[in-house]
Amino acid sequence: MTTTTAPRPALRPWGSLAWLHTRYQFLETVRVPLAVIGNLLFPALALVFFVVPQSAITSDPIASTAAVAQLGTFAIMSACMFTHGAGVAEDRAHPFDTFVRTLPARPGPRLAGRVVNGLMWAYLALVPPVIIGATLTAASLTWSQALGAFAMVAGVAVPFTLLGMAIGFAMSTKAALAVVQCVLFPLAFAGGLFMPPEAFPGWLDTISQALPSRAARDLVVQVSTGVEANALALPVLLVWTAVFAALAVWAVRRDEGRRFR
């Protein structure tokens, strides 16, 4: 007598799994309208209240474009850190996340889905500031500048995605939300995202140049306006990216060991 065994179901390709996780996480965010509004509204409001009323800025194409670029950088930082900081911590608190992690699939597609989802929200967060800058100020971009700025979004998103993941995998939901806010806004202020670095006192400008937010801001402004960035901006951003990557890897491994040991 021979016995037959049911064929094992074929595993989905890596890319298909990553897209499945991306779609699931995007829909989870959309189902919370307040989270969507928060991602899209604050940078636009900052532009309306702090930039548009200043005719000296709005009438100058370079100053207007730089102001939109600064707040656009903040929008990217905010979307990435809240998506991967508070969002990851909240997901870890749900029993469904534990179930997903027991499935016969490597964690790569799930993490890739988180990164792509955060990048999608980073691009969406830029829509209101760009529309306001184009209609209410003299900001303008050539096609080459627009393509460069579009590509820079991913470059700016990488380090702050890694920082958000480090926070999200290391902390509880309440702690992660508080830490994201306590890290994001000081980095934004000190990085020249709300006030141009030219207005900083000397000591603050020196500290600012060592921050990832200032490095990201300078590179985005350079691509958008042609104004030369600090020569150390790219090395500073790369160093911080490596530091945040190490923190993210440590947090993920710590979480795996703590929950499945």
Automatic annotation (TrEMBL):
Tell whether Transmembrane helix is among the UniProt keywords. Answer: yes
Q: Which domain of life is it from?
A: Bacteria
**According to its record, how does it sit in the membrane?**
Multi-pass membrane protein
Domain (ABC-2 type transporter transmembrane) ranges: 19-221
Q: Which UniProt keywords apply?
A: Antibiotic resistance, Membrane, Transmembrane, Transmembrane helix
Q: Name one Pfam family in it.
A: ABC2_membrane
Parts of the chain that traverse the membrane: 32-52, 120-141, 147-169, 176-195, 232-252
Q: Where does the record place it?
A: Membrane
Looking up PANTHER family in the UniProt record yields: NODULATION PROTEIN J
Q: What is this protein called?
A: ABC transporter permease
Give the organism's phylogenetic lineage.
Answer: Bacteria, Bacillati, Actinomycetota, Actinomycetes, Micrococcales
